[in-house]
Amino acid sequence: MTRFTYLKGDSFFHRMDPVMKMIWNVAVLLAAVFNFDPRYSAVWFVYLLATAMFLANIPFRQFVKSLSAFLVFAFFIAFWKTVYYVGEAHELLVWGPFRITREGMLEGVSVFFRVLVICSLSIVFTLTTDPKRMVDSLTQLAHIPYRIGYVAYAMLRFIPLYENEAQVITNAHMIRGVGETGQSLKSQFKLYSTLLVPLLVSGIRRAQAAAIAMDSRAFGAYDTRTSIEEVRVTRADVAFVAVHVLVCIAAFWYFVWLGHGIRYYG
What angle do CA 152, 158, 164 make, to 5 degrees? Predict the structure, then answer.
């Protein structure tokens, strides 16, 4: 099972209209970044974790597996913010060029949870959204040209293909006794560097094949095109998204407009 492949299901998020789900993503993202308190960001992450478990019916192991792809990036940013804090602060530990402060740690924890929130939103959307249904919703509800909708469809379809191809290349390297198999950060960096060129060449070939297939079928010859399925937005979708939009507006009014609780440690 790949990390970012659409999971078929009948949960509330699976039934939700993709455009409404996008609005929900933006509302939660904005509400989560209006305050720099690490506790505030942590609460949003816990909320998204509960949402993935109960409203999206995403297995916990699958969610953690998908999120693990971003943990190294999140830890790196948190470490960078913690060690290279600029300004007056309460020093906790000084070890050579590294200077760990209380304010730097708070800033690092806040950024860490912010990254997890952004990644969790992407995971919930990707695992519960059928690419074909998303294109239909974009073209019918958002009135986006179907050419742009196909780009979004291709993006979601190619992500699991690239992931599978990367695994195939890694297995081929292991069979031939080349490449990196360690779990250290250095080994993982070398592994990803060896995958870069093969995946790039494969992506170019796949793009050329898709372009030829589209040209042979006269894709884009007409300004509009018909759709088999009609997009419908339920009242539950509207109510769920409206609540989060109101929360986003309230967070902006309280934290930004009134200036309460905003504190940046950098």
Answer: 155
Q: Which two tokens stand for residue 195?
A: 């995958």
DSSP string of 195-242, one letter each residue: HHHHHHHHHHHHHHHHHHHHHHTTTTSSS----SSPP---HHHHHHHH
Reported for 28-32, long-range contacts at CB under 8 A and 24+ positions apart, including other chains, are 28/117, 28/121, 28/244, 28/248, 29/117, 29/118, 29/121, 30/248, 30/251, 30/252, 31/244, 31/247, 31/248, 31/251, 31/252, 32/114, 32/117
Assign residue 143 a region (left: φ > 0; alpha: ψ between -120 and 50; beta: otherwise). left
Residue in the structure block whose two tokens are 């309280």: 254
pLDDT by residue (tens digit) across 96-152? Answer: 666 777 777 888 888 899 999 999 999 999 899 988 888 888 888 888 888 777 777
pTM for the model: 0.77
| CA–CA distance, 18 with 256 (Å, rounded to integer) | 29
Torsions phi, psi for 101 (to 5 deg): -125, 165
φ, ψ for residue 224, nearest 5 deg = -130, 165
- With CA atoms as reference, report the closest residue to 162 among 9, 33, 44, 5: 5
Paired tokens of 257 = 């407009």
Q: How many C-beta neighbours within 10 Å does residue 46 have?
A: 12
Q: Which helix (H) or strand (E) segment is 191 a member of?
A: helix 185-216
